[in-house]
Specification:
The complex is a heterodimer of chains A (114) and B (116). Chain A has 114 residues and is mostly beta strands. Chain A is built from no helices and 11 strands. Chain A is globular and about 35 Å long. In chain B, strands 2, 5, 6, 10, 11 and 12 form a 6-stranded mixed β-sheet that branches. In chain B, strands 3-9-8-7 form a 4-stranded antiparallel β-sheet, with no helix packed on it. A two-stranded antiparallel sheet of chain B has the order 1-4. Helix content of chain B is 0%, strand content 52%. Classes of the chains: A mainly beta (114), B mainly beta (116).
Chain lengths: 114, 116
């Protein structure tokens, strides 16, 4: 059973470009979470999605950031007009059900904005 | 809102010895879960151990055990017989227990170095 997959693993964007980060949850998991880790800090929650629904986006910046989890295909975290402060590691996690079921993490995408 | 605090930015321990990492949290919830995650240099987040707040018995997973003090809102991790592979960042995390698919709230992490 493949784990949570994220691609790309590394992404370099110039200021003003768009970044698209992809997350394929574990097989059978329909709950996806995105977290951001700034250098030397812990992970910070961004958004929680189920298939075709955003359940909790309380950690998402109000502008430039969006997320989706379509009926088919991976979850996408989109960052428009990236700035240097967006440079971070972005982790996706998935769980089989809501609640205190273990969240399995992907390897992360390291975004560097030049 | 919940907060999680790890007061030790860095720690070191000799191989085969025991080390304890501290974690405190603040919440008004009565039902919740606590976790320790390990992040080695590969950056992969690995669940080490979890504790349900309603359980009085401290969780144990092989060489890893916790000291959960609910009244003090303290949740420390003890690593026995430390191994070189335990070198990593360790994050304490909190999750509300209302079964609504909640997010994890992480502490700032403790960098553990196991020395040969």
């Amino acid at each position: 059973n493949a784990g949570v997959m994220q691609n790309p693993r590394h992404l370099v964007r110039r200021r003003g470009q768009e970044a698209r980060l992809r997350c394929s949850p574990m097989k059978g998991h329909s709950h996806v979470y995105w977290y951001r880790q700034l250098p030397e800090e812990g992970l910070k929650f961004m958004v929680y999605l189920q298939k075709e629904n955003i359940i909790d986006e309380s950690g998402m910046p109000k502008e430039r950031f969006s997320a989706e989890f379509p009926k088919e295909g991976p979850s996408i975290l989109r960052i428009q007009q990236v700035v240097r402060g967006d440079s971070a590691a972005y982790f996706c996690a998935s769980s089989v059900l809501a609640g205190a079921y273990e969240q399995y993490f992907g390897p992360g995408t390291r975004l560097t904005v030049t | 809102a919940q907060t999680v605090t790890q007061s030790q930015p860095e720690m070191s321990v000799q191989e085969a010895e025991t080390v304890t990492l501290s974690c405190t949290y603040d919440t008004s919830e009565n039902n919740y879960y606590l976790f320790w995650y390990k992040q080695p240099p590969s950056r992969q987040m690995i669940l080490v151990i979890r504790q349900e707040a309603y359980k009085q018995q401290n969780a144990t997973e092989n060489r890893f055990s916790v000291n959960f003090q609910k009244a003090a809102k303290s949740f420390s991790l003890k690593i026995s017989d430390s191994q070189l592979g335990d070198t990593a960042m360790y994050f304490c995390a909190f999750m509300k227990g209302n079964n609504a698919g909640n997010m994890l709230t992480f502490g700032g992490g403790t960098r553990l170095m196991v020395k040969p």
